[in-house]
Amino acid sequence: MRSAKGHNGPCRRGEIRMRLIARSRLGLRAVALTTGLAISGTSALPVFSQDVQSAAVVVRGDQPGAVINRNIYGHFAEHLGRCIYEGIWVGEDSSIPNTRGIRNDVLAALKELNVPVLRWPGGCFADEYHWKDGIGPRQKRPKIINTHWGGVVENNHFGTHEFLDLCELLGAEPYICGNVGSGSVQEMMEWVEYMTSDADSPLANLRRQNGREKPWRVGFFGVGNESWGCGGNMRPEYYADQFRRYNTFVKNYSGNRVYRIACGSNGDDLNWTEVLMRQAGRQMNGLSLHYYTLPTGQWNRKGSATDFDESQWHSTLRHTLRMDELITKHAEIMDRHDPRKRVGLVVDEWGTWYDVEPGTNPGFLYQQNTLRDALVAALNFHIFQRHADRVVMANIAQTINVLQAMVLTDKEKMLRTPTYHVFEMFKMHQGAVSLPVEVQAPAYALDGQQIPAVSASASRQASGDVSLSLVNTHPQHAARIACKLTGLTPKSVSGRVLTAPEINAHNTFAAPESVQPRPFEGPRLSDDGLQAELPPRSVVMLELR
User: Fold this and answer.
1) Total-model pTM
2) Which of 12, 84, 226, 389 could disulfide-pair with 66, CB 3.0 to 4.6 Å?
3) Strand partners, 57
């Protein structure tokens, strides 16, 4: 998680135009059909001119691709604002119903998503976090200042035991980010031993003394966070050496196998990826990538989460589609150094970033969540799934009360956001086999820029059922879909749709169910495929059985 103060992110250097990427591995005939992504200002795709336009989709069930790693649907919970304290942790003595201090309503909501992996404790916070402050009797834990996020004092009541308890309650894999910026090699080495060793050793015995007899399984460990920025302002050459050093002491104990993730690029910093892959690629299992969607592309004036017009609706979706270009470029570098794709690309921070809600602490990064965010989530999942051969994990920023959150809380109240509903609708894609999809659709053009009006992604579960997710980005016009299915003969189709009357529709504590999925009427099977009409500004999930 990058600190907003002093950030020199990629958007400051100007917007890079999106480009179409032909993927011969999908065996597709034309770039426009492969991705449905259009270059800004191009006339390659016809533009909507009527209330309803037609789009052609082909799902290649006879050309299965890579398995979609379920960890693409991962989450991120940093010590930031009200994400941890109030959002997750209320304490065992709270009047808010809880399980060992973790609030029950949030637990129930997240369980519905089948959360596969949860990243903690940061973000920028990770490189100031010293894990021994967060173990032992809570009343004896030292208080700390969260210098990155609001300057608040935290009591350390939510630490290693509480986080790993949360992961077990959710059935999620823990992804812990270690402190390289201000921590020592010994500190990181001892943390891994404390959590995962079953030896009769001082650190394992300290864990037992603190109430946990058996070691935990910790599958993912990040060696530092944003080391190019808040994690130390390092050069890639220097960080590569630091990674090699720290990584040496992240050991496997008692059958636990740690997937070690190196700090990767800030957006389009391709040189960082080149240096890391060249100098440390053999030592890592994964390499991270961070990219945030800003409506304006400007960090000092990002735009409002709820007060926006069609121009910012369009620009937000256009900026989020850059994710495809970024993954493609970084993957090309990784392919040169790692043609067998042993190293996974881990997009462990992504999502929308707006100006904070008026009247809230600017260091808490609290923002509302609208239908626009739901489409951003769906479009990114389509991109990740197109790159399922290289992208092995993604973690949205963040789970609760921060940036593009799943859940918002206000003391004892809780609501699910539109983004939450996309995660719930798309969970059928988790662990399924990706199926190539070709889309030929009109462009959605505005102010001399254009994006695809329709996006699609498909997968096949072990049962043989196929999930087909569709997005109509146009806020006024419906899209009539004619979908050809090759190698597939479904007998039934059903679906759900997420849409709303206004582009800035969102859920509030007074009206928490204003934006939620509803049954999708009208998809029809035919001899060679199916037909459906996507409402404007909508996300649709179809199940073919």
Assistant:
1) 0.91
2) 389
3) 439, 483
